[in-house]
Amino acid sequence: MMQSSKGSSMRASGGNNHLITLKSVTKVYDMGKEQVHALRGVDLRIRPNDYISIMGPSGSGKSTLMNIIGCLDTPTSGRYEFEGEVVCDVAGEDVTKMSDNELADIRNRKIGFVFQTFNLLSRTTALRNVELPLIYAGIHRRNRIEQAKEALKQVGLDDRASHRPSELSGGQRQRVAIARALVTKPAIILADEPTGNLDSVTGQEIMVLLDALHEQGNTIILVTHETYIAEHAHRVIHILDGQIDREELTANGKAAA
Amino acid sequence: MIEILRIAGSALWAHKFRALLTTLGIAIGIFTVGVVMAIIEGLNATFSEQISSLGSDVLYVDKRAWFQGHEEWVRSRQRRNIGLDAVDYIAQRSEYVSHVSPRVFQRGTLKYGDKSLESVTIQGVHEDMAVISGTEIVAGRFLSRTDTRHKKAVAVIGNSIKEELFASVDPLGQRIFINGRRFLVIGVLEEQGQMMGRDLDNMAYVPAETLLKMFGRRWRNISIALKAAQPDMVGEARDEVIGIMRRYRQLRPGQPDDFAINQQSTLQDLYDNATRMLWMVAIGIGSIALIVGGVGVMNIMLVTVTERTAEIGIRKSLGARRSTIRWQFLVESMTVSALGVVVGFLLASGAAIIVERATPLAARIPPAWGGLGVGVVVVVGLVFGLWPATKAARLDPIEALRYE
């Protein structure tokens, strides 16, 4: 099902085994007269099965970084490689960018999003919500339902498949969202403040679930501003004023290393 | 594709009432066109049939044209009469004419026993007139070739005569007197009803030769009725008969015709004009209603797109391509217009039934409705859905996701 990189021309030169490589990535927003520099040259490498937290105060640029990693947005300059494929390489006049459809396909097959506000389709059942990425991937109905049920089982909600989001608790909704992120077996799971709208107990449960997914071999990137959440990851990257301020290994990371 | 239909269906179901209101404009448009089409179809099935029973494929060769100005009329009075021999002359030479019969008219008084009937139209014809006029025989038989060849005194009577003179007797084999001459009744025609206030059944057919021998001068003017071999070859038949008649009249090239070919198409033209007007009105009202309906669809789709901005963001983040989103909303707008078409047709069918029951007009539901419906769904749905759908497809996923 998973389709790896296409032509070799798109491949990066260096034979590294990085999942994600960002090189001097900047992002400038044009707000009429003034320009907002959301990112001012970010270098970042993510290996398979990494567990990373991105921390920073609001306005630091962590959301922008998240959007670029998630292929929802493209950098103003710099280079972004995903599994060795160039998503975007802007150096002056020389621009290589994936098309809108290629970005959509990467989001569909390679990236699983988990949002703070869950972002489930409210009128649709849990199962249908989880099926959605598979629909866009063009998976046949029978396989789709099977895979969606499997993903729901993984987050412990196989008995809630026919419930609508309004009939589920916040924690359960976020579990559905995680199942939806998992269902295409993506290369990375991007979780943007996944516990932000949950009480601490439920939030803790969600973090235990994410930890378990990491144990199973998934690559997870977590955006948060809560230290105790960030510490579930192995590496914490602090963003300040659009730049990486510092990077530290957590207790979990040290134990793993 | 099935998935897109399912998504559109559930999105509309979530706003049932709104979807229904949106479809109203389209429904009214379809309703108007549908009702008019039903009425025209009904008219075609009845009135048009009557007109063609007069014989749209029948030509009449006469000394004069039926419709002409005064000057022409005066000039054509000078023409020679057309004699009975022209009938065989045409019949032997024509390829595009299948049936030929003379028509000689005589007003007469009919008597049977002590009953009598005045002002009856007596038509002197040949055996081919049965086919040319298209009237059926309900009892006995029509005139035969032998009857006309041997100038037999036989008559086929219309329904009114049967009812007036033979209230309780079987008319077949009875002897009646036409203007004092004895005739044998050999057949009865089916009832034809009235046409513009004239009783079409107050008539009798007798052999043309018999009529001329008994009542007329030998070279009296006659009319000749011709039926084209194929309904679509009336034009060819007409040209051919003109040629034959010119030879019959021994006209030299350059000399004008001294006869006229008449055709029962004038009524048909009148009818066609009337229905064409109805059509134009229907299409006019229908298209205005459809445009209004279409704008309604577009309006509601724009509202829908704005309302569902967050949903579009979610779908995009999960990997929906632009084209997928565009199709999702196009299918939705087409579904709305399909709903309108269905509602409009249902209403129109109801109206057609009411018209059929409550008025003398007939109303039929024409099969063309199906095609019209599909056309409207596609055109209205696509044209008026395209802008909102494109707007949805072009949304920036980040901003869409942030939208509350």
How much is the average pLDDT of chain A? 89
- Main β-sheet, spatial strand arrangement of chain B: 2-3-10-5-7-6
Q: How would you describe the shape of chain A?
A: globular
Task: Choose one word for the global shape of chain B.
Answer: elongated
End-to-end CA span of chain A: 32 Å
Q: Which structural class do the helices and strands of chain B define?
A: alpha+beta
In which order are the strands of the major sheet of chain A placed? 7-8-9-3-10-11
Radius of gyration of chain A: 18 Å
User: Which structural class is indicated by helix and strand composition of chain A?
Assistant: alpha/beta
- DSSP summary, beta strand count of chain A: 11
CATH topology of chain A: Rossmann fold
What does this structure look like?
- The complex is a heterodimer of chains A (257) and B (404).
- In chain A, 32% of the residues lie in helices and 29% in strands.
- Chain A is globular.
- In chain A, helix 3 packs across helix 4 (141-154), helix 3 packs parallel to helix 5 (170-182) and helix 5 (170-182) runs parallel beside helix 6 (200-215).
- Chain A is built from eight helices and eleven strands.
- The longest helix of chain A has 16 residues, at 200-215.
- Chain A is α/β, with parallel strands linked by helices.
- In chain A, the strands form two sheets. Chain A has a six-stranded mixed beta sheet with strand order 7-8-9-3-10-11, sandwiched between helices.
- Chain A has a single domain (12-256), classed as Rossmann fold (3-Layer(aba) Sandwich), CATH 3.40.50.
- The model of chain A is unreliable at 1-15 (pLDDT under 50).
- By secondary structure, chain B is an alpha+beta fold.
- Chain B has two domains: 2-50 and 269-402, no CATH class; 58-263, no CATH class.
- A six-stranded mixed barrel of chain B has the order 2-3-10-5-7-6. In chain B, strands 8-9 form a two-stranded antiparallel sheet.
- In chain B, strand 2 (97-112) and strand 3 (115-125) form a beta hairpin.
- Chain B is elongated, with a radius of gyration of 33 Å.
- At the A-B interface, helix 2 and helix 3 of A face helix 1, helix 11, helix 12 and helix 14 of B.
